[in-house]
Amino acid sequence: MSKDKLWGGRFTQPTDKFVEEFTASIQFDKRLYHQDIRGSIAHARMLGKQGIIPMEDVEQIVHGLQQILQQIEAGEFDFSIALEDIHMNIEARLSAKIGEAGKRLHTGRSRNDQVALDIRLYLRDEIVEIATYLDLLIDALLGQAEANLDVIMPGFTHLQTAQPILFSHHLMAYVEMLKRDKGRMEDCLKRVNVLPLGAGALAGTTFPIDREYVAEQLNFPAITRNSLDSVSDRDFALEFLAASSILMMHLSRFSEELILWSTSEFRFIELSDGFCTGSSIMPQKKNPDVPELVRGKTGRVYGNLMALLTVMKSLPLAYNKDMQEDKEPLFDTIDTVKGSLKIFADMIREMRVNGETMRRAAGYGFSTATDVADYLVRKGLPFRDAHEVVGKAVAYCVENEMDITELSLAEWQLFSAKVDNDIFAAITVEASVNARNVPGGTARARVESEIRAAREGK
Predict the structure, then answer these.
(1) Per-residue pLDDT for 243 more than 90?
(2) Predicted local distance difference test score (pLDDT) of residue 7
(3) What local confidence, expressed as pLDDT, does residue 82 receive?
(4) One of 158, 280, 314, 408 is an active-site residue; which one?
(5) Fewer CB atoms < 10 Å away: N or C end of the chain?
(6) Closest CA to 269 of 343, 349, 340
């Protein structure tokens, strides 16, 4: 038994074959190979620096690990389920390559703090990459906002026409959401970027290790302060999954709008053929499969968050085998988020905007009714009275199948004597948009200012 398992000295019977397969994690944690080797090299150098193992052994270990890294990246490394995980696979191969020196590598550490280190290193790199993908999507949105700065569309509440807005203003709403998503990722990174190695199995180690030296080698600005906490919590991973869930929720909302806007009923936009598919039976169909799939994958990310929350909710300190279930939800979320952001940025960049269709739709549904009320307020009528006047005018229009922009001056004066000829200029969709010249408003000058600020990283 002990010949097969690096931890098998206490056991007298081999592990059941099915148990071996059921408990192994190498099928999915092998993607941590680079981080595992990087962490082991830093650990070995620290052991040598502290005189815990001979420097000759350190040199052999580092050289052997670098060779293993090359083999893995060349596809020449056979991962073994019998060796359970990435840590044991690499350590066993190292010992087979360099002998006694390889067996000294695990001095002063446990797989518990080793895997905590690997996950933090991996997630740290992935968060930085996700932030880059977020920047690409923000840039694509800004490009469309700049190219369509004068396009007016109907703004909606309850999916009912509300008030005219600039299409660029609508896009900038998603820019704000994505900027907050990036901020959440960067904030999460602060808690990911802490070194757990040195915690041992749960209580630290009897060897005179130098944790700060390892942290310096691996570019960690801080070390964990409690050995139990170091190996037994995954709140940094949960925080990432929560931030990812919010990010995917934003992409899902945008996907829903793109799907609606690309229908023949809306015709606000047209997605490039490269991001759509056809129907197997209906030759006229152009299905927005990419935003539909992103919308669907949002539930997958939510599920990953709930899965890890459920794994962690009743675990006593310190490490438990349940925690092996942290990796698949984490890896799947990383892959899903990166893929969704990349394809979304490309899709938005190639999206065609039907400005004239949007402009016509912006004039429907009494979209400038609020502007009439504001007009009456400026004429001295209290807002609640103005609201009632406009409500009656709208009811009149509904009964006569017309829009408020079609009312004559005489008809307007049936509802209020304060209405004059200047009302017609006040209730165009262009006047409505540009009248909202307040910080955060949809007026062209305000939107231009926000685009510039976003370009400057503000």
Answers:
(1) yes
(2) 45
(3) 87
(4) 158
(5) C
(6) 349
